[in-house]
Each structure stands twice: as structure tokens, then as C-alpha cells.
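Following up on my earlier thread - several people asked me to post the actual chain instead of describing it. Fair enough. Here it is, all 367 residues.
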Amino acid sequence: MRKLTVDLGNLASNLSTMRKLVNTESEVKVLGVVKANAYGHGMLEVAKRLEQEGIDFLGVADLEEARALRSAGISSRILAWLHDPKDDFVYAVKHDVDLAVSSSDQLLRISRASDELGKPARIHIKVDTGLGRNGVTLTELDSLLGEVKSAVDSGKVITSGIFSHLSSTGVQEDLAQIAKFDEAISKAEAAGLSFEVRHLTASDGTLSYPQARYEMVRLGVALYGLSPFSDNRAKEFGLKPVMKATATVVQTKRVPAGEGVSYGYLYKTPRETTLALVPVGYAEGLPRNASTKAEVLINDRKFVIQSRIAMDQFVVDVGDASVTPGDEVILFGTENLTADDLADAAETINYEIVTRMGGRFTREYIG
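Reply from S.P.:
Thanks for posting it. Predicted structure:
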């Protein structure tokens, strides 16, 4: 009675669409971001399909995600960029996981893993160009570059890449970050380092700044058919939603005018009407603060969730519409009812909507 349908055909289509957009002048590689359970879509299923489609890299946040991919038989290049101070890098180096390096300590521990295995580690230098999260600052970069060069010369590491991340604050801020990234690249080259790939832009930046695509782009939200932060809308680029969230009506009842509905009586029926009960709540990831604002689709008609969204269920006033138990309820995932719509109702972003979907939803993979 609750289902998340993940269309892997749409995932492949979105990858193809984005590849065509970015490869207008030169061959640009694509890193498909599958962190956080592939934005809630299912990391292993998504990674397997992306591998079938010839993805160049897969991107994960941490080593546990990388381990899960390798354990599932994924052989594609994997980049992991968020490391615990106690992480042991032996598994990653042994199983050919590319590792982001943001500090001397990380480089030292990666080098020790290389020594233990007698095998060089592949690293990507992470530079903080203005997002203020992980990454080495330009002030500290020269020192780290010297240490990286020594590790390269001793055969402990291979510099596979150098990268950064835009803040998506505004055009001027992004252009300033692009300039800082170019400065970091120049410093690295002056230190005698070369790279297989330079990468800076995620989905939004890839669409907005063609000059900053370098040898690789990182695609996350666009792969899943969702609109990025900026004014770039997924539909405009031919991207298709990959996740569809549905449920079934489990009960309907006729009630008189003035009937209070659900906790706190946020809604009272203005007339005699029919109430439809839907078994999805915040335990499934439906935002409670979307109460009285979010819409659902039942039999091709939109209805507002007027009542309080509870842990297990919500109630919809369907008036005199023909709605009966067993009818499908679409929460999002169609052209005219998207994750963006639910995000707007909850005053958040579509990223949060899809990554939080879970609970008692069952998953079905199609395409």
C-alpha cells in the first residue's frame, strides 16, 4: 500500500541527456554521484545500471559506501571524499578506490596503506575554493603539494585528480571559485604534478558554466531527474524523474460539515464531504510541515493534504469526487506533481525529499 517506483530506464536516459549536453566541444567524463543510497533511489541498483551505461566514475561520500559497492561486485572507478580521522585506508587502496586528500594527515595515512600493500594509492587533491567545507585552503595548498609530490616520487600515490565544489551562491561567487580553482591547478602544475581529471562542477554548475567542465563533471541530482539549486529546471533539459512515490487509499467515509480532521483539527470540513485515508506519514519521510500545503494526485485530480500529516497516515478531503479504497495516490514523481512541489510545500529542497523517503515504503525497480 506504499511504494517507491525507481525507473532505471529514466536514469539511463538522464545520463545520456547530460552526456550530450556536456560533450559539445570535447570528451568530458562523468562521475555519477551515488552517495546517501543514491539520493534515496537505491545505491546498488543505481550503481549497477550506471556501470552498464559506461559511467566513468562513481562518487560516494565515505569509505563504507565504497566498500558496499565493491562488495556488490561494482568494478567502476569510485571516488570517496569524506574521511573519518580514524579511517583505515588499506581496504580502499587494495580495492582501487580513489581517495580525496584534504590534509597532510590524510596523505600520511594513505601513504602508510600504500606501504603496507606495496601498491600506489590513487588520490584526488580536494581544494576548498570557497565552499568552506572539506578541502585544503589555497593558503595551505603549497605545503600539501610538496608532500604529495614527494609521495608521487616515492611511488606511494598517483595523482588521479584535483577537484573542488561550488557553493551555488550566485554567479559572482561561482566565478570567483572557478578562478581560485584555476589558481590551485597552476600551483599544482608548478609543483610538478599532473592529473588525469580536474573536476569542479556538480549538476547545477555543469549546466551553468561550460567553461568549468574541465575533464570531468560530477552529476548527482540531474541523474535522478531533479532540478538543481538554481533556475535550471530539470524538465527544460529533457530530464525525467526517476523516483515515483505512491500509496493506496485504505478507507473512505462520508462526514458532515464541521467535522475535525486529524491531530489539532488544522482542518474542519466546510460541508458534507468524503474523507480519504492514505497510509503514509512522516515515518515514511513525508514532511510533517507540509501539512495543509502539499498536494497529492488521486484519479488525475489534485487534492491538498488539509489535515495534519501523522506518523503513519494523512487524510484528504476529496469532496464529492469518486474515490474508493484501493485507488492510487501519487505523492510525487509525475510531470505535473514533482518532488519540487512537495519540497516547496515543506519549505525545503528536492534533495531532502527523495533522500528521506523510506520507512515502510516497498521499492520496485523498472526500466
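The CA atoms of residues 287 and 346 lie 6 Å apart. That should answer part of your original question.
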